[in-house]
Write a structure and sequence with these properties.
It is built from no helices and 16 strands. Strand 11 and strand 12 form a beta hairpin. A five-stranded mixed β-sheet has the order 8-16-15-11-12, with no helix packed on it.
Length: 181
């Protein structure tokens, strides 16, 4: 979608003529490919099919020189979720894996926040290469709103989920303990 310029400068007596080819043949005959009077090849609204090898030819009665250049087209695609994190309920002491994955070009990097604060890998929290958040030995303090953020050079998306933590039956915190006398 952007424009690209390939410069080709040649000097000599007599002054050489500059011509461009693509993959050994003529340039596409459209208004997107133009060669300026100074020899610069400009391609506007670059698309995937423009990718390939171009060659600058400097030609005079004395001889000719050829210089190849390669155009690589990278598609930029904003991230799109493959899996969004679902609301999850876990019991205290469990390990929890909350899925989140995205695709895009370039491939997005996934980060997580809890109540607006970014989570970093630690003994308790870990983000897998696919983007899932693993929380080990879940406790009541881990309850809250989590956000999965997928980001690349073209943009970002985010999705929220709620983690609810319940006390394990028989080991509830705050249970009264009566001692027999």
């Amino acid at each position: 979608g952007t424009a690209v310029d390939f410069y080709c400068l040649a000097v000599g007596t007599p002054a050489p003529v500059i011509a461009w080819t693509k993959a050994g043949g003529q340039l596409p005959n459209d208004r997107r490919h133009t060669v300026s009077s100074t020899g610069t090849l400009r391609i506007v609204r670059v698309a995937a099919h423009d990718q390939g090898q171009y060659e600058c030819h400097a030609i005079s009665v004395v001889g000719a020189r050829h210089v190849p250049v390669q155009l690589t087209v990278e598609s930029l695609v904003t991230p799109v979720f493959i899996h969004t994190p679902p609301d999850t309920t876990a019991e205290t002491g469990q390990d929890v894996k909350i899925p989140c994955s995205a695709q895009g070009e370039p491939h997005p990097i996934i980060t997580w926040t809890k109540d607006g604060v970014q989570i970093t890998d630690s003994g308790k929290f870990f983000v897998t290469p696919e983007g899932a958040l693993i929380i080990q030995d879940v406790g009541e303090a881990d309850q809250g709103r989590y956000e999965c953020i997928a980001r690349n050079a073209f943009g970002f998306i985010s999705s929220n989920m709620l983690l609810t933590v319940t006390a394990l039956e028989g080991r509830r915190t705050g249970d009264t303990f009566v001692e027999e006398s």
